[in-house]
Design goal:
Layout: H1 2-11, E1 14-16, H2 18-26, H3 31-39, E2 42-47, E3 55-61, E4 67-74, E5 79-85, E6 92-93, E7 97-98
Parallel strand pairs: 1-5
Antiparallel strand pairs: 2-3, 3-4, 4-5, 6-7
Length: 100
């Protein structure tokens, strides 16, 4: 699935909701960083029962080594970027697994 998501992003077949764009501005995350994180990323969690689309939490790093989490809803033709944030170290093990 990660390769499918990467290809959708590469082709420009993605959408970012207005709410997500506002949060990205608040968090000082640029769309280029989101695309870099996905390009270099891996799926760390799957939410296959999410509606209206199954979604995937991707962990990746920007070219400046900034860790980013991107939640992406996906179908055959489109990726919907749902939320984007810089993960907090105290909540994640190696940014890949949630601390219990």
């Amino acid at each position: 699935m990660i390769n499918h998501i990467k290809e959708l992003i590469k082709r420009g077949n993605y959408a970012v909701k207005l709410h997500t764009r506002k949060k990205m501005i608040e968090r000082s995350i640029k769309i280029e960083e989101v695309k870099e994180a996905i390009k270099n990323g891996e799926i760390i969690e799957e939410y296959l029962d999410d509606k209206p689309l199954p979604s995937y939490l991707i962990y990746g790093r920007t070219k400046y080594n900034r860790p980013i989490h991107v939640l992406v809803g996906v179908n055959e033709d489109m990726a919907a970027i749902i939320t984007v944030y810089e993960p907090e170290e105290e909540k994640w093990l190696d940014y890949r697994r949630r601390k219990r």
